[in-house]
Write a structure and sequence with these properties.
Layout: H1 7-18, H2 25-31, H3 37-55, E1 58-68, H4 94-107, E2 111-116, H5 125-142, E3 146-149, H6 155-163, E4 168-170, H7 178-184, H8 190-202, E5 206-213, H9 219-232, E6 236-241, H10 257-271, E7 278-280, H11 281-284, H12 289-294, E8 299-303, H13 327-336, E9 340-341, H14 344-357
Parallel strand pairs: 1-2, 1-8, 1-9, 2-3, 3-4, 4-5, 5-6, 7-8
Helix pairs in contact: 1-3, 2-9, 3-10, 4-5, 5-6
Bound molecules: iron/sulfur cluster.
Iron/sulfur cluster (SF4) binds near residues 80, 81, 117 and 118.
Length: about 350
Amino acid sequence: MKKSLTADQVSLIVERSSNGSPPTLTEIAALLRLTSKAATEALFEGARKLREIYFGNRVFLYGFIYLSTYCRNNCAFCHWRTELTTLSRYRKTADEIYGAAIELAAAGVSLIDLTMGEDPQLLTPDGFELLCQTAAKIGQQTQLPIMLSPGVLSQTQLSMARRAGVTWYALYQETHNRNLFKAWRRGQDFEKRMKSKKKAAAMGFLVEEGVLLGAGATPEDLADSIVAMGKLGATQLRAMAYVPSPGGLPPDYRVKASNQELLMIAVLRLSYPRALIPASLDVEGLQGLAPRLSAGANVVTSLVPAYLGLAGVAHQALDIENHNRGVEKVSEILTSNDLSVGQPQEYQELLRQMKRNNHL
Ligand code: SF4
């Protein structure tokens, strides 16, 4: 049994991070094993301070449109995997996507995230062209950056998205342990997925990378992922707890995934203080937001317009049809945590800086 770090030891690691020396691999793994309340609070407090240094009290809100729940892949952790043939699925039309984006923009989000399963129909040349046209139209009308999360793309598809004005390419490896990848992302190619992100970064996209917690990755695996995310040049780094999918990957009963998510958010903040680190509404809904903010997150993702028949990724329906994933409710939580909603102009200035610096 490894000895857990004390609050004083954690504070020393935090202090070194504040002075530009991020935690080592061994320290990251130890931080991800914290159990004592005092040590955990020292970590979260340090993460909040670092967030404040680089972002003040601003937190940015992302609107989320899960535009198609069809997928050709069979990821063992995912509710939308292809083997579940009896699921009721949808594919939104270009007009429906556009309408949802306009609603989100009017509500005050700073970014529109267009996410889909690897829908074979939307990845045909015609389907992808229509998707890019829709993204371009949304970008022109809202003047907001667009994030596209369409799965692995070819060079041609990345070029089309670039021409359409897409800013972010989000593609989560979920794990950088190849054995876990093989078991989780069944039948998929680890290298191809990594290369798609590297190509995107070289073409000028901002890249979001992410990992899954509570499905079997050890603290050492997660430490390796943190290093890999930095090497990739990703500037938004996501950690999300596994929401068990019926009949899918069994959860790792050794850890409480939502607690590990908080630790991971804080450790990411220590490792990459300037990064955008999301608190997703997709795992525990609105009630899970405050703890994630207290751990150092500076983006709230997965705000969804209610009553448009949209779904979440990890959870199909949590807090979607009740306005709990709207700007108003999220803003209330921010205010009660001494935080405020970052404005779209501030967000765009931040992205300009990220592009100029080209690293975290
Ligand atoms: S995680 Fe994404 S790629 Fe994998 S099955 Fe689910 S929707 Fe498809």
